[in-house]
Amino acid sequence: MKIDHIHFYVEDASASRDWFMQHMGFQALASSVSRHTLTTAVKSNVVYIVLSSPLTSESPVAQFLRLHPPGVADIAFAVSDLEGLMEKAVANGAKVLEPVQQQLLAQGGWKWAKIAAWGSLSHTLTERIGNTPLLPAFLASEFTTKSFPSTEPKATPERLPSQLIRNSELFAGIDHVVLNVGAGDLELALDWYENVLGFRRQQRFTIQTDNSGLRSQVMVHPKSGLQLPINEPASANSQIQEFLDVNQGPGIQHIALETPQIVQAIAQLRNLGLSFLSIPPTYYTQLRLNYPGLPLSAAEFEEIAAQEILVDWQDKSRRALLLQTFTQPIFEQPTFFFELIERRQEAEGFGEGNFRALFEAIEREQMKRGSFPLGEAK
């Protein structure tokens, strides 16, 4: 099982498509129109993003947006045995939103189905045969499809990184997806993903600062290694609770995009106008003190600090490094954001130091927004 594509429900799919192209270097693929919904798709390397917006109040996107701000509505998984997985999912209580359907084409074909997941999230399950198009929606006869030429949005000449990466090569794939659930629901969500989709439990974290906290369990699919951390709030003013309040329920908090050259990628994305969370200089002072043996040259360390990238050193492999950074929320509300991640020397899992540093960085943004009750944040 691996991620096939991510489907966002947004207010204006065309504007969101342009944002992904201009600020993240994605390429436009195609757009389709039904009687009530506009859908468009963009890609970067093997990362596919689908964006849908309502044309009428009958659109399922309109129904979603009446309940939630824009965000991820569906995570589509590519699977090898759709019927077998659906049989198991139904036997373990999954609600079927769309039964198994099939589309045969000259060059192959594919099958797909959709199940309800946690909250308003759904999972489309796909099985491909041969070289088939991206989306079932673009194959449906009720849609008219327009393809777009391949484009490479360019960074401005100022502040260009020394090694410019082609925008189509910025991202190597999706490393993981993070789900936030309500207080007391973590174990129920873990059981659901174990029983229905076959994920297994791996790392577990409890983060507590002077102000707030969270509990998190990393789920991993045993065959593909796909990772799905699931968070619940550990305090009433936790950033997870703020997400749940603003999102009006559980949902996808962020998606981590894998990049082979994170320093160059971040510099290039900053040039495209993408905004990132700030990391204080004291983080890098402490990093030097706590990890004097970091396998980084002085020049690399300075570049990482300049781009405000988090660093986690994995003891069991002295060359393994986990490098991460996080965007500001991409929509008006403080809900969904992207992570960029580089795993050097096959670094695995998640470092607790980086996990805590992310939590504290988002906490600082909460303070800026005044999200903590008066006198509660320090």
From TrEMBL:
UniProt GO BP: L-tyrosine catabolic process
Note on cofactor: Binds 1 Fe cation per subunit.
The EC number(s) this enzyme carries: 1.13.11.27
Residues engaged in binding Fe cation: H176, H254, E339
InterPro entries given in the database record: 4OHPhenylPyrv_dOase, 4OHPhenylPyrv_dOase_C, 4OHPhenylPyrv_dOase_N, Glyas_Bleomycin-R_OHBP_Dase, Glyas_Fos-R_dOase_dom, VOC_core
GO molecular function: 4-hydroxyphenylpyruvate dioxygenase activity; metal ion binding
Gene3D superfamilies found in the cross-reference section: 2,3-Dihydroxybiphenyl 1,2-Dioxygenase, domain 1
Family per similarity comment: Belongs to the 4HPPD family.
The name this protein goes by in its record: 4-hydroxyphenylpyruvate dioxygenase
Taxonomic path: Bacteria, Bacillati, Cyanobacteriota, Cyanophyceae, Oscillatoriophycideae
